[in-house]
């Protein structure tokens, strides 16, 4: 049984197997070492994620994931009084929901590597243009999300990770270190370009590698083809595949 | 428990989660509907694949995959008397190995959708340039593989699929329908460009959709976020998540 990593989150997770996506890159990096399962739910908030917890991470599982990324907050940080108001989750509740998720995952497996990822920054200019496209003239003149408010949620996420001593990736800060992050990393002011996906991939690999899940150090499931003796191929499989 | 598709094959399967890869595209298409597991083994032939069968597809599994792609032959068709001779598997044995794989998968699950994929065509000119790069002046002047021989293996693969009444994708023929296939679909005369990956993806989706595994018709695992009543989010989860 190969170790499993679960990517649990909203659309930024759901879209992570598109060309250049961070989920696909992780799968490639951990090829022959771990299975990457995507559990991304477009539009979901941390509040709605709670309804999925027992289904995706049953406490009775004999083979829980060895690592899980938890990537919510981009929708929670939607502002009240705008089109996306139905997704808004107050900051305190967002933090409490993350605590519930972390507690559940720890109950599921005390050794699971848990990685909380903050929402990415917001490019308000693009967010507004994007809102104008489906809603036309009726579009509100105000953005659905602001970078400042999303930053407060990002800090909340990092605080929860610290409370529990689990890992976190502060994507909101990390991305803003690079000049031109607005267009370089964001495709519509919120979702990620391939370069933005690359940042998530690199940061997640850094956390996994810094723990006990460095891909080069993990054993491959079966012998490399050059280890196979063409005259006696059974030998290396008998020696190595004792599963 | 979500249905699983397994991609079983050689390097063309192992590399299928690189940017634009066919495995990643399948994962994206079947997001929230099926899990795609990659079991690709660089350099492997159908002969060596037999050693993995019972490990990857244990007969005792209570949840066998609902679909499996079997994608060997590119290495089997390596010519004798060249650098890659150790990978050469005679045609008759290749066909017999495919039969053993299909029989095993059917024993694993009589309802499993099995898709045999033929090796892609070979661009001999690029294969030779590629061989020259690691071996320098010592490189043989003759190609490791020829398109003609690989075509014979591709036919063998299609014949085995017909014998068992399982699906097949004749990649060798399909790709050569397009002018300029040599550079358009192949990156080194053998492995696939993103466009080549696209052909595999489209052909596999065609087979899956033509059977009972059309992504748009398969149920999503959880409600779409617009189905959630923000005032009473529990309702739709109670109604729908009866797992």
From TrEMBL, chains A, B:
Gene3D superfamilies: SGNH hydrolase
Keyword vocabulary terms for this entry: Hydrolase
UniProt organism field: Helianthus annuus
Top-level taxonomic group: Eukaryota
Keyword NADP (UniProt): no
Name used for this protein in its record: GDSL lipase/esterase, SGNH hydrolase superfamily
Pfam family, one: Lipase_GDSL
Signal sequence annotation: none
Transmembrane region(s): none
Record family assignment: Belongs to the 'GDSL' lipolytic enzyme family.
InterPro entries: GDSL, Iah1-like, SGNH_hydro_sf
GO molecular function: hydrolase activity, acting on ester bonds
């Amino acid at each position: 049984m190969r170790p499993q990593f679960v990517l649990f989150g909203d659309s930024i997770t759901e879209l992570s197997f598109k060309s250049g996506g961070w989920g696909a890159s992780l799968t490639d990096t951990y090829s022959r070492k771990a299975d990457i399962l995507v559990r991304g739910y477009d539009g979901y908030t941390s509040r709605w994620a709670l309804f999925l917890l027992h289904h995706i991470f049953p406490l009775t599982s004999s083979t829980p994931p060895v690592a899980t990324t938890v990537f919510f907050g981009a929708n929670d940080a939607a502002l009240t009084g705008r089109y996306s108001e139905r997704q808004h989750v107050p900051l305190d509740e967002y933090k409490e929901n993350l605590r519930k998720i972390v507690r559940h995952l720890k109950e599921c497996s005390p050794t699971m590597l848990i990685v909380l990822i903050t929402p990415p920054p917001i490019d308000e200019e693009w967010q507004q243009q994007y809102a104008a496209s489906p809603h036309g003239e009726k579009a509100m003149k105000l953005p659905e999300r602001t970078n400042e408010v999303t930053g407060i949620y990002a800090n909340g996420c990092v605080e929860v990770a610290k409370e529990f001593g689990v890992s976190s990736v502060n994507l909101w800060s990390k991305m803003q270190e690079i000049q031109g992050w607005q267009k370089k990393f964001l495709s519509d002011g919120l979702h990620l370009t391939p370069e933005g996906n690359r940042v998530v991939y690199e940061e997640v690999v850094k956390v996994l590698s810094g723990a006990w899940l460095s891909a080069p150090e993990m054993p491959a499931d079966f012998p490399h083809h050059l280890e196979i003796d063409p005259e006696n191929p059974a030998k290396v499989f008998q020696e190595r595949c004792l599963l």
